[in-house]
């Protein structure tokens, strides 16, 4: 168990709070397991349809029902740089399966959208709910009941959380997540940020901006900053759903290919047909999620996971809260400085020692549950390693380096960048909100200023260009929650607010929407709950009201007398324009039933 008393205390309360849901979930998982390998329950007609397109040897193996069949759920498309490498994975996985006497089939595909393409665009209003669509699409693929284990091919923002929800819904099956890795380093992140800010100021044009962006996002693999996509990979490793050392190996390399082959064969080795059965529903428990939160906080990971982790845990009958995350963040130090928490990219992080070094450091101080179950080995100590390539092309693992290769990027606990992690819960009369403090300078952790109210991010940019924002203020952007318009990210605001902050003004953002996983240097209270559409106090804020955001005490307050607030009416917004266009009409039901942000903002029952 974790030796850190504060982390252990949070774990115990999660276990206690989750008991009813967790026990019911495990009962369902074990009932499914008790029925034995799934294909034995299919009628001959069902089975014939299930392997009709297979080759002769695979068909014979599946008909005999004595070999494991690996179902592949793939998020491949070739518009997303991170997912383009998955094009060749199914054949590699099938070949790997046959080499060990198994079979693999593509069970189904799931959609995968890129928030980088949709930032500031209408399509971003579909982004959050795409997570739930992905979970449902994966369930359709696995519903054929042909499989003894599942391999999940996904990397980016909502895709991995959706796939985890599916894996836990099919918790009677082992689940192995297989990533594609980050693209090689391009234009340095601080230079990219500088060009964006110059563009916001009108000092460079679109041509220069596009050249900088193209030099940053230049090839196959995940974007190299530490946003939601790379936070996903860290989570999968610390939750034990990756094979060790696999997260940050670049695509198209011999080691990446060897890790994919190994992962497929390992998935076949942990089915109910063998002696090392590791069903996802029993592997992933409260300790797994605490380890994930520790990883998120100590690396300054994406704030999107304050939504996703709650939704993922709910699929396993586990109830997480923002308070759990904030308390864990207070208990763990910040060890990584990767953009936007620093200037390095994820390749620099990996070269400095990566997740293997991080895991070993955290284990040394009891900050991870070392006895958490994983798909590999006996516990988290097996992840304190670095993956290498043997001369014969197979994977070798060596202990993580004793020292960081660059302590400015990845520090040992003895030289932590700050004593607490990257995430803080804010509470006050405006409700509950999340702030990412790891990228914000300490002198900007408290902002008290008049509110300027907006109801879409483009209005902020218009006001900036009109010269109306050269003053201290807090931008209150409302009707951006899951029920209002699907909770889009407001990342488009970062350069604009950054310019004003650099001019010496005290600025901050308060919103019931999201910021990007690349949330940066401007203090931002996000995911405000209750949202404006749900009658939250944010809907009563007026221009000129004083708002206080205090990331030191953890408070978020509208400094207006209670009697005046009681007399105010909610300033409602006509949301008809959010109902149609770019597919939004198909998501009306999701918006209508969405849970609160602090419940995961999911369309699934809590």
Describe this structure in words.
- The protein has 606 residues and is α/β, with parallel strands linked by helices.
- The protein has two domains: 5-184 and 219-399, no CATH class; 423-577, IlvD/EDD C-terminal domain-like (Glucose Oxidase, domain 1, 3-Layer(bba) Sandwich).
- The protein is built from 22 helices and 14 strands.
- It has helices spanning 5-34, 44-51, 56-64, 89-99, 115-118, 127-142, 159-169, 189-200, 206-216, 228-238, 254-269, 280-283, 286-299, 305-314, 322-331, 346-351, 354-364, 457-465, 482-485, 494-502, 562-567, 588-593; strands at residues 69-74, 103-109, 149-153, 175-178, 385-389, 395-399, 423-428, 431-436, 446-454, 473-477, 507-511, 524-529, 546-550, 555-558.
- The strands form three sheets. The chain has an eight-stranded mixed beta sheet. A four-stranded parallel beta sheet has the order 2-1-3-4, with helices on both faces. A two-stranded antiparallel ribbon has the order 5-6.
- A hairpin with a 2-residue loop joins β7 and β8 (431-436).
- It starts with a helix and ends in a 13-residue tail after the last helix.
- The mean pLDDT is 93.
What does the radius of gyration come to?
24 Å
Summarize the main sheet: 8 strands, mixed
The end-to-end distance, rounded to whole angstroms, is 28 Å
Q: How many domains comprise the coordinates?
A: 2
Chain oligomer state:
single chain
Q: Determine the strand fraction and express it as a percent band.
A: 5-15%
Strand arrangement, major sheet: 7-8-12-11-10-9-13-14
In DSSP terms, counting alpha (H) and pi (I) runs of 4 or more, how many helices? 22
Helix content: 25-40%
